[in-house]
Amino acid sequence: NIDKSASPTSGLDAGDVVTYTLVVSHEADSTADAFDLRIDDLLPAGLTYVSGSLTTVSGPTVTLGGTSTPTSLVLWLPILELGQASTVTYQVTLDNTVTHNQSFTNTANLSYSSLQGSGEPSERDYSDSDDAAVTANLTPLAFAKSVIASSETYTGSSQFDASLTDLTIGEWVIFELRARLREGTTPVIMTDTLPDGLDFLNARVRPTPDAGMNLLIPTGFPTVTRVGQTVTVNVGNVVNYPDNVATEGDDLVVWISARVVDDAVLNNGTTGDDKINNATFTWGGGTLTDSESV
After folding, report:
1. Radius of gyration of the chain (CA)
2. Helix or strand or coil: residue 153?
3. Distance between CA atoms of 238 and 64, rounded to whole angstroms?
4. How far apart are CA 80 and CA 24, in angstroms?
5. Is 83 left (phi over 0), alpha (psi -120 to 50) or beta?
6. What confidence tens digit (pLDDT) does each residue in 55-85 have?
7. Are 33 and 80 contacting, i.e. CB atoms less than 8 angstroms apart?
8. Residue pLDDT, tens place only, 78-125
9. Residues 281 and 177 sit within 8 Å (Cβ to Cβ)
10. CA 232 to chain centre
């Protein structure tokens, strides 16, 4: 019979390595040795075999068949005697097409014969199978909103609260929405609800850093819509190419620009009045929120 297991089985993202273990055993109470053992292991889309990773851990040596491909393995064992067992391991990586909570189940199918060779009248063919499943987790590592710039240097940030940016009528301000993504493919929608008294100017994806940027937006510039004070940035799928390191290169950053309007009702001259700006980040497996005040 054959037993298959995987490690690790959860918390995975693109570029992570999964080790599969196959144990082929021949019970001692059987009546004959097993011959011409073949294991077919078709990897599901999204997993790729790590070349050269097949290792016989114990027992008779298992070899990789010549018809194997990076997504379809054929393993061979000429004979397994009564009471013997062979343990092999091999590794796969998760492709950057992986999405949150995606599960990969693949089955190892074992076939063997009661006699060596083929064509014997008394030959009997047998089979067994076992599977193992692993699951991806692309929950974003962080989401935060902040003020990164404003047009008037004299307003500063210390008049009422040193931690908040001060603004005056006509001044523009740039809010930054920053999400650190896990490696793989994540659908993204960001919303930014501007407080009354601020007028939306534009939204843009932060220019690519000089080096280390891992993200790709296949559809190009996001779709930006505005309903009332809420600005929605529909980014679509974001592909984060794997390097197995969480850095600024994994950050999706959107800048929202707004201006303080000259409106006697909305901005009635009351100084020290905080304007709270709320943002959401919807990523396919849930929603994260953060806010910033000015």
Report:
1. 29
2. coil
3. 36
4. 9
5. left
6. 999 999 999 988 888 889 999 999 999 889 9
7. yes
8. 999 988 999 999 999 999 999 999 999 999 999 988 777 666 666 678
9. yes
10. 23
